[in-house]
Write a structure and sequence with these properties.
- Helices cover 29% and strands 24% of the residues.
- It has 147 residues and is of the alpha/beta class.
- It has one domain: inorganic pyrophosphatase (n-terminal core) (Alpha-Beta Complex).
- The protein has a six-stranded parallel sheet with strand order 3-2-1-4-5-6, with helices on both faces.
- Helix 4 links the parallel strand 4 and strand 5.
- The chain is globular.
Length: 147
């Protein structure tokens, strides 16, 4: 019987504007663990922080129609896909929260969030904010879950 970590192939890390400096740390750590990871930045304004890096997607309100449905190709692609694991270290509010909650994943984990959230399957707290530590902690926990 496989554990949850072994069954993870595609990871989506969702960040807000304030956490975009963590992008490279997340991608590097997942690469060393041989997992395919993408970073989605849900922001109010497009900043083009990572240029055209294919593993980083930045969406703003312009990528959604008046009713909150994805309208750009990038948004349609990310919202039509189901990821094996969704991770975030951020809380989202208002329209960003609604957009965040429409993302699909088999397992959703909130890491060191200020307050627990029912959206997540697992809310994890640890004393370290190191990205490598958070991801290794996620690996340890998901290895204990049998699929």
């Amino acid at each position: 019987m496989k554990n949850r970590w072994e069954s993870i192939e595609e990871v989506l890390i969702v960040l807000n504007d304030e956490s975009s400096s963590k992008i490279n740390d997340f991608l590097t750590t997942f690469k060393t663990l041989e997992k395919n990871a993408k970073v989605l930045i849900l922001s109010k304004y497009k900043n083009e922080r990572m240029g055209q890096k294919s593993s980083v997607i930045e969406l703003t309100k312009k990528d959604f129609n008046l009713f909150g449905k994805p309208k750009s190709e990038q948004a349609k692609n990310i919202y039509s896909k189901q990821f094996d694991l969704l991770l975030t270290t951020d809380l989202f509010e208002g329209k960003l929260k609604k957009r965040f909650q429409k993302l699909k994943a088999k397992t959703k984990i909130g890491l060191n969030l200020k307050e627990p959230n029912d959206f997540f399957d697992i809310n994890m707290q640890t004393t370290s904010n190191s990205i490598a530590h958070l991801i290794n902690f996620t690996k340890e926990i998901t290895e204990k879950i049998k699929t």
